[in-house]
């Protein structure tokens, strides 16, 4: 296995081919760079962008002329509980409108009103309707438009390499000069020399046992950056989507797209038939931000008021004309009928949805390591403690663009990657191959890790749980050192799973440590032992750096550059949060 | 309840010809063909290859396989009734390994009609 070595070279290497990766590649090519775009699976098909369901927030102001990029900025910062890096928020809220037209130029079809204006819908946390969309396939259409643009005949400077699992970034003299990966198609170890590298590898949903993310969202891009010295930020922040199927088992984690339906009469009940959201939110009921709804659903379930399969009831029977909505959204409703899901009333629970933390970047997408950029979900600090529905795709588009442009204009030197560095990677990978009977099967470590993350570092946390979780993660990390996957003549997905698991256990430590350090509750991070927001102590980001003995954490005060909690009228805040 | 899954195995680099490998699994809870493949690869035989990096929710359209001879999206296909099923890679694309095909390398079909010179 992996006996051949294949060498490639480019100016800008973009790892990951979702929205952020494609956009970065397009922009870098536009600025004259030879770009290599890699994809872990099928180009244009793998990645979570395809799964982004409904909305794309951009303040074009067609639904309500009072909306503006400034209002979107304020909504984003308030919803993120003031933890966002405001300079980063500005980057994408200012660019969102432009990116809508960019996508349209690439061939994206937005839904429009009969007089040709964009159709914008609202979701919790927005002051004005802002979400552009294309039914339940917005993400897929965005991805298709970007793929079409990358492949456009006149763009000859973007080369796409599919089925390439990047395992390591290569550093020479403190600068990232390329990457090494396993080419699943040819079975060769692939070495890519690059003058700048952009990570656009997405989130880490697959580290949690219940998730709606694409199966490749295993977070190893974040770990790669961490391993070469980049800082990680807000790693305790993970967004859960409140309503996903819990039953039948095989649909567990798949989301029911419905936040627009709350106002139409979609309701939640616990097993005792109580509409539990009424108690705490008599006005808004279910129409509250995702973190609050997720938490309340989870509390019902752990409080013993959940349904037979560990969920709460989502009831569609009070929605007038629901059949029309069902037909419009076959993926959510009609197709699920095949698996025996009754769509009048079904069991739902929160699912891992978005990685809020990630690689620490500046306004140009640069990390602390020269030559390394990050864009999209793998980058952190943009959405703070909670992300608004519809802000993910514009974030990817904006940071893809800035990182693409900067990397093309600030090319580093071409540095050859020596055989010694390549052999080191080969050895590391092949160390995972062996008789599973003599070691630990990777699948087992993987399953146990995902389970402990969901239970002890998930929606509801406590110091005690997290400390226990930390012990389990440490044990798993030791066991991961003994992982063995059976050998085969060509690389197997089993081997890739082992590599992913190795990266996951390392990242899990950072998540648990960060969650332990934040002794308050804010947005997506909720601690039963510290249930309140503590603005006097914790208007700070937690930043993690790798050291041989484990993650080293420190805190950095949030720079309240444009907006501070005192300036926003309390009435506005409490009404919406 | 025990359930037999016959899976197409072939690595063009080393195998002279394809073969079927038979796995016996417990059917409970595994509703979709994709769940069965995930289970086999994660828990039973890590050397079995199928497309892994996919959405599992009918959006990416890369989980295609032939289930009992019929081309299907495995994330949308219920495990068929009965005691066994056979899973093959789909036609029309170059085979990489086992069930994984190269979607960017379509294999041209033979033309049905040939037009003569005369």
Task: Summarize the structure in words.
The complex is a heterodimer of chains A (577) and B (118). Chain A has helices spanning 19-30, 69-79, 86-106, 138-150, 220-227, 277-280, 290-305, 322-328, 392-409, 419-430, 442-456, 463-480, 493-517, 535-538, 570-576, and strands spanning 5-15, 35-38, 55-57, 120-121, 131-133, 158-161, 164-172, 175-183, 189-199, 232-233, 238-245, 267-269, 312-315, 345-355, 358-360, 372-374, 379-380, 440-441, 483-484, 540-547, 550-557. Chain A is globular, with a radius of gyration of 23 Å. In chain A, the strands form 5 sheets. In chain A, strands 1, 2, 6, 7, 8, 9 and 16 form a 7-stranded mixed sheet that branches. Chain A is built from 15 helices and 21 strands. Chain B is mainly β. Chain B has a single domain (2-103), classed as Ubiquitin-like (UB roll) (Roll). Chain B is 10% helix and 35% strand. Chain B has one helix spanning 33-44, and strands spanning 2-9, 19-26, 64-67, 70-73, 84-88, 93-97, 100-106. In chain B, strands 2-1-5-3-4 form a 5-stranded mixed sheet, with helices on one face. In chain B, strands 6-7 form a two-stranded antiparallel sheet. The radius of gyration of chain B is 16 Å and the shape is globular. In chain B, 39% of the residues are buried. Chains A and B meet through α11 and α13 of A and α1 and β7 of B.
């Amino acid at each position: 296995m992996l006996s051949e070595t294949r060498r490639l070279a480019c100016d800008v290497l973009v790892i990951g081919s979702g929205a952020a990766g494609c956009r970065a590649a397009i922009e870098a090519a536009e600025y004259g760079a030879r770009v290599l775009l890699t994809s872990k699976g099928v180009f244009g098909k793998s990645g979570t962008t395809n799964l982004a369901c409904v909305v794309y927030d951009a303040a074009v102001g067609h639904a309500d002329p009072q909306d503006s990029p400034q209002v979107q900025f304020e909504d984003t910062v308030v919803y993120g509980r003031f933890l966002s890096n405001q300079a980063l928020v500005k980057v994408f809220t200012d660019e969102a409108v432009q990116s809508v037209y960019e996508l349209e130029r690439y061939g994206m079809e937005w839904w429009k009103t009969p007089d040709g204006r964009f159709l914008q819908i609202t979701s919790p946390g927005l002051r004005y309707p802002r979400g552009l969309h294309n039914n339940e396939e917005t993400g897929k259409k965005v991805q298709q438009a970007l793929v079409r643009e990358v492949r456009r005949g006149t763009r000859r400077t973007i080369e796409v390499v599919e089925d390439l699992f990047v395992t390591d970034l290569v550093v020479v003299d403190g600068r990232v000069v390329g990457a090494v990966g396993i080419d699943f198609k040819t079975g060769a170890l692939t070495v890519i020399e690059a003058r700048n590298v952009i990570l656009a590898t997405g989130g880490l949903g697959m580290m949690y046992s219940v998730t709606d993310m694409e199966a490749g969202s295993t977070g190893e891009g974040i770990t790669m950056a961490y391993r070469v010295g980049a800082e990680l930020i807000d790693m305790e922040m993970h967004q859960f989507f409140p309503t996903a199927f819990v039953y039948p088992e095989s649909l567990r984690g798949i989301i029911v797209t419905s936040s627009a339906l709350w106002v139409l009469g979609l309701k939640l009940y616990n097993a005792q038939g109580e509409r539990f959201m009424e108690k705490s939110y008599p006005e808004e009921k279910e129409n509250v931000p995702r973190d609050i709804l997720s938490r309340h659903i989870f509390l019902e379930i752990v409080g013993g008021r959940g349904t037979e399969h560990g969920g709460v009831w989502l009831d569609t029977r009070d929605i007038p004309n629901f059949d029309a909505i069902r037909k419009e959204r076959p993926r959510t409703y009609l197709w699920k009928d095949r698996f025996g899901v009754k769509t009048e009333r079904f069991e739902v629970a929160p699912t891992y949805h978005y990685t809020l933390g990630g690689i620490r970047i500046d306004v140009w997408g640069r990390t602390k390591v020269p030559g390394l950029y990050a864009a999209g979900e793998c980058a952190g600090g943009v959405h703070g403690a909670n992300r608004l529905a519809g802000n993910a795709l514009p974030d990817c588009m904006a940071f893809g663009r800035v990182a693409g442009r900067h990397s093309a204009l600030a090319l580093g030197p071409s540095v050859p990657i020596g055989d010694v560095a390549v052999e080191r990677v080969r050895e590391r990978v092949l160390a995972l191959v062996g008789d599973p009977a003599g070691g630990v099967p990777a699948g087992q470590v993987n399953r146990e890790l995902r389970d402990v993350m969901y239970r002890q570092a998930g929606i509801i946390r406590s110091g005690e749980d997290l400390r226990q979780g930390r012990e389990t993660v440490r044990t798993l990390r030791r066991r991961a050192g003994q992982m063995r996957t059976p050998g085969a003549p060509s690389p197997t997905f089993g081997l890739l799973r082992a590599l992913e698991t190795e990266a996951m256990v390392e990242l899990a430590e950072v998540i648990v440590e960060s969650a332990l350090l934040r002794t308050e509750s804010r947005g997506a991070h909720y601690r039963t032992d510290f249930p309140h927001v503590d603005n006097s102590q914790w208007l700070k980001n937690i930043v993690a750096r790798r050291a041989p003995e484990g993650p080293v954490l420190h805190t950095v005060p949030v720079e309240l550059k444009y907006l501070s909690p005192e300036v926003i009228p309390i009435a506005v805040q409490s009404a919406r949060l | 309840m025990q359930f037999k899954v016959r899976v197409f195995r072939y690595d063009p680099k080393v195998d002279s010809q394809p073969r079927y490998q038979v796995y016996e699994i417990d059917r409970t809870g595994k509703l979709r063909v994709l769940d069965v493949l995930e289970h086999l690869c994660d828990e039973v035989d890590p050397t079995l290859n199928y497309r892994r990096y996919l959405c599992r929710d009918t959006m990416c359209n890369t989980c295609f396989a032939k289930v009992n001879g019929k081309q299907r999206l495995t994330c949308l296909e219920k495990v068929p009734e009965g005691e066994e099923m056979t899973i093959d890679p789909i036609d029309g694309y170059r085979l990489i390994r086992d069930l994984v095909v190269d979607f960017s390398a379509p294999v041209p079909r033979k033309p049905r009609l040939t037009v003569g010179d005369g």
